[in-house]
Amino acid sequence: MTRIAFAGFQHETNSFVSSQAGLEEYRMADSWPGLLDGIAVVTGTQGLNLPITGAIEAAEHAGVEIIPILWGSAEPSGPVTSEAFEVISTAIIDAIKSAGAIDGLYLDLHGAMITERHDDGEGELLRRIRAVFGDALPVAISLDMHANVTAEMVKHATSISIYRTYPHLDMAETGARAFAQLQRHIQDERPAKAFRQIPYIIPMHAQFTGDGAMKRLYEIAIQASDATVQVELAVGFTGGDMADTGPSIIAHAPDQATAETAADEMLKQALNAEPEFDCHLPTARDAVETAMNCPAGKPVTIADVQDNPGGGTPSDTTGVLRALVDKNAQGAILGLIHDPTVAAQAHELGVGATFETAIGGRSGIDGDAPFIGHFRVNALSNGRVTYEGEMYGGGIAEIGPTACLALLKPDTDIQIVLSSVRNQCLDRGYFRHIGIEPETVRIIAVKSTVHYRADFEPISQAVISAGAPGSLHCDIQAIPYQKLRAGVRLGPLGPTHKGPANPK
Ligand SMILES: [Zn+2]
Fold first, then answer.
1. Given 2, 144, 269, 415, which is the most exposed site by the fewest CB atoms within 10 A?
2. Ligand 1 centroid to 150 CA: how many Å?
3. How many angstroms separate the alpha carbon of residue 168 from the centre of ligand 1?
4. What is the CA(145)–ligand 1 centre distance, in A?
């Protein structure tokens, strides 16, 4: 029987925040399970929209022997600590060694992991795996579409499969696609690969695959793929500061010439699409004003796109809140502000209590500060959130004690949901779990860049990206890259980057 090992090690690293992902962050359950090993890799991911879930389900259908190794993910943040990287990488390699002879390996990776020591975390992990198990072992990997793909990853992986949707609705599907590739590698089909970097960086809020240039590029990649050619497209993670940050293409084909041609054709399409990206980003005040001028009826959703904890940010900036307050917003809800201190304070005081406090704004972000006001504790919860949206439906998030505070200001109606664990507000469950029905309000403000669209766009008359101070810059020229390679354009049709601050 064919024996296949399954492992995963995910992180999306934002170089411009001060937090870190250590072992504790890997062990902790957040929107995804905590660190899993052995059979828990199968049982703990069952039914979720995760790449490894799709890969394992496909393996069950194929009737191969599944050897679960280890799976770990930490909420996006600053770099992965050397300790976490060494412990988890070593555990993966040791567990594969003790599994005995295997025919193939599937890895569920993100592709934008930066560690204290390695700018290319996944490239380093794959290099170590090759060093131990040799070049002959088929290794199929799946990556998040926010991967900053490197030549090292392309060299060591037998094939790479990448999500094609943002919001990421196809994570499990991508895992299944990677598994299908792996089965072909095991039957001695080793594709030739061609790698191209697209020479312009795309702001996160312009990467939505539901319309426009991004949608078309993924359609082209899918059309260019068939039984023998596989064209994969990554959009890159703008918050990672490394040489290879940005979008890229990997074409797989039976021979090198076909792979090169497919990659060149996709690159040509990406260059043609460059002028079509809509990167407009209104200020928070303008976004709130637009929302308030919309007719009564369905809510308007405002996305605080630059403070998205799913992109590693603190999720505690107050720019959008201030804009709502300044405009005396009515029927507005905002989530999630990460503020364990005030959440604990609210739990101590109890429902109905009123108090003055300062919320959020503690991350030292330029132009941001705590928001001081009078609040009433409207509701409290243990922060166990059941997902019902398309992206994470079936899963559960653990966001610690939460509190819903109403701002006590005349002629204003704003409720704020505070969490004790950083989590991206991408599902209506974050409001529902604390007694708010988002369908019934006028304005929904979320700390998310694009993922929120999956669950909030269907109930909204409009969605608006808002630019408030945050550490996931959507103005690419404002990002203080130190390591980004020379020649890449800072935004579609943007100025050309001059290169690393201190070239090696
Ligand atoms: Zn992503």
1. 2
2. 16
3. 7
4. 5
Task: State the helix-helix crossing angle for 51-62 and 171-186, rounded to 10 degrees.
Answer: 50
Domain final residue, candidates 190, 217, 239? 190
Domain extent at residue 300 = 284-473
209: CA distance to ligand 1 center in Å?
A: 12
CA atoms within 13 A on the CB side of 464: 26
Ordered alpha helix ranges (H), 157-228: 171-186, 212-223
146 CA → ligand 1 middle, Å:
5
Is the pTM above the cut of 0.90? yes
Looking at the structure of the chain, the number of domains it has is 3
**Sheet containing strand 248-253, strands side by side:** 192-197, 248-253, 230-234
Show which of 174, 190, 206 is a domain's final residue. 190
- Residue 201 CA, ligand 1 centroid: distance in Å: 15
| Residue 140: HSE in the Cβ half-sphere, 13 Å Cα cutoff | 30
Question: Among all chains, which residue has been given the structure tokens 């599994």?
Answer: 99
Same domain? 293 vs 227: no
Question: Which residue ranges of the chain lie beneath pLDDT 50?
Answer: none
| Residue 503: predicted pLDDT | 54
Instruction: Output the CA 451–ligand 1 centroid distance in Å.
Output: 9
What is the CA(307)–ligand 1 centre distance, in A? 15
pLDDT tens across 206-225, in order? Answer: 999 999 999 999 999 999 99
Task: Compute, in angstroms, the gap from residue 325 CA to the centroid of ligand 1.
Answer: 31
Model pLDDT, residue 301: 98
Ligand 1 mean position to 249 CA, how many Å? 16
Ligand 1 centroid distance, CA of 67 (Å): 27
CA distances from 304 to 12, 273, 277, 348, 444 (A): 19, 26, 19, 29, 11
Question: Based on the number of CB atoms within 10 Å of its own CB, is 393 exposed (0-12), middle (13-18) or buried (19 or more)?
Answer: middle
Decide: 470 and 229 in contact? Cβ < 8 Å: no
